[in-house]
Amino acid sequence: MAEHTAVEEPSATRSAHEGILRRQSARESAARTYARALPIVPVRARGLTIEGADGRRYLDCLSGAGTLALGHNHPVVLEAIRKVLDSGAPLHVLDLATPVKDAFITELFRTLPPGLADHARVQFCGPAGTDAVEAAFKLVRAATGRNGMLAFAGAYHGMTSGALEASGDAFDVRVARLPYPQDYRCPFGVGGSHGAELAARWTESVLDDPKSGVPLPAGMILEPVQGEGGVLPAPDAWMRRMRRITADRSIPLIADEVQTGVGRTGAFWAVEHSGITPDVMVLSKAIGGSLPLAVVVYRDDLDVWEPGAHAGTFRGNQLAMAAGTATMAYVRENGLTERAATLGARLLDQLRGLSREFSVIGDVRGRGLMIGIEMVEGEGEGWGVAGTGGSNGPDETGRSGGSDEDRGAAGLLGSVGLSSADDAGTAVMPGSIPSPRPASPELAVAVQRECLRRGLIVELGGRHASVVRLLPPLTITDEQATAVLDRLADAVAAVARGHGRGAG
């Protein structure tokens, strides 16, 4: 693997770059996030590439936290924006009808799951996904006359108060928290279909036990792939189970597709992998084509709001609607969902090869072009064996790690009076699996830093902030994907050497 090192920039550009960063630090709030980990000053961008004020170029696998489905400044997006600007059309119209909005809704409905598109209504919200989450909560509460919400451990739904309550780091909770299935760090110590079965049964028990302390809720919100939670794809069978559980109890199911939508996971909407039709979909990020836009799409029988029940001054962003229409149409017409599925599978396979080389990589998982690499501590002097924790290769969602189909957790199952079962209802004898090694946020930060030195921008996430995340644009080429992997592999190798943690 070739080592990539920083190129020395001219003193004038370096001075301008450093001055801007210094003024940002002095004048902006302490709540800054990306700016702390990524001390760059973007001045130009195209596709996957960003150029900084220091003259350096970077491959951007952050993509505006998944907002840039087509990468930076894609020609079809720029053309759509210029067309609106040149037409003299108003840019601010509140919720008035316009040709631009009509075209956006038409394209959006063309892409929706058929069971929803045929009976849907759309509500334009404020410009951020968290505004759409708040609107969705308000909608289902009005429609059901109930108040509580169900959400999942590790979730992230935004930064406003209601969205935070439903997120994994909530501290003032009025939302019932349910276990989200995962293999590598299964909350039941099981993984695989058994862990998902236990998670589903836990949900049923909470809803059906009159002494659970959880009254029938107004709705359930879930992410088909938890992004900020560590890139955790929900098993398709579990998604179908959640759909049955909520439908049988008249609980509206809200799918948060803010980060997963518009082709990111290898389907236009991530719920399509499991074939379910949610009652409500929360959409933002890529649907605005890089500009601020957020909407809620929902079944028409939930449309019980009075006029003005939910509003927002900037819900009529015409430039974002034009950019979003162009983006959705381009993804749909150019097979970028299939491209994301194919390239994503190849990247996952190559990254799993890297995990076998370096024991500091505990797990590789993802779906489409939404990929996570979990960094872990080692075991003893030799740092253990790469993949310790019951890894058995990818399942239907593209995850690695977890348990075999015929292993379980006897003590846990016995203590709660449950036994695992396959889809046919056959009882399975429980067993036990080794625990994965401790997560290492320090190593993840080190990998992110080494990636940046090599001109690669990546994000971190996960429950322990130990997951290196890749969210490249759907337009990434094969050659660019190879460059991304080369730089990432170099960064991991440098970190492993620097900490005395070599190959497994």
Explain what you see:
The protein has 504 residues and is of the alpha/beta class. The protein is built from 15 helices and 17 strands. Strand 2 (49-52) and strand 3 form a beta hairpin. Helix 12 runs parallel beside helix 15.
Keywords:
single chain, 504 residues, alpha/beta, seven-stranded mixed beta sheet
Shape call? globular
End-to-end span in angstroms?
18 Å
Main structural class: alpha/beta
Largest sheet: 7 strands, mixed
Strand content: 5-15%
Count every helix, treating DSSP H or I runs of 4 or more residues as helices: 15
Task: Output the radius of gyration.
Answer: 23 Å
Please tell me the overall pLDDT. 85
Query: Any low-confidence stretches, pLDDT <50, length ≥5?
Result: 1-8, 380-397, 399-429
Helix content class: 25-40%
Number of DSSP strands?
Answer: 17
Oligomer: single chain
Protein name: Diaminobutyrate--2-oxoglutarate transaminase
Enzyme class: transferase
Family: Belongs to the class-III pyridoxal-phosphate-dependent aminotransferase family.
Pathway: Amine and polyamine biosynthesis; ectoine biosynthesis; L-ectoine from L-aspartate 4-semialdehyde: step 1/3
Give the secondary structure arrangement, pairings included:
Elements: H1 11-27, H2 34-37, E1 42-46, E2 49-52, E3 57-60, H3 63-66, H4 75-87, H5 99-111, H6 114-117, E4 120-124, H7 129-144, E5 149-152, H8 161-165, E6 175-178, H9 192-208, E7 219-222, E8 225-226, E9 232-233, H10 236-248, E10 253-256, E11 280-283, E12 295-299, H11 318-333, H12 336-357, E13 361-367, E14 370-375, H13 410-416, H14 441-453, E15 456-457, E16 459-461, E17 467-470, H15 478-498
Parallel strand pairs: 3-15, 5-6, 5-7, 7-10, 10-11
Antiparallel strand pairs: 1-2, 2-3, 4-12, 8-9, 11-12, 13-14, 14-17, 16-17
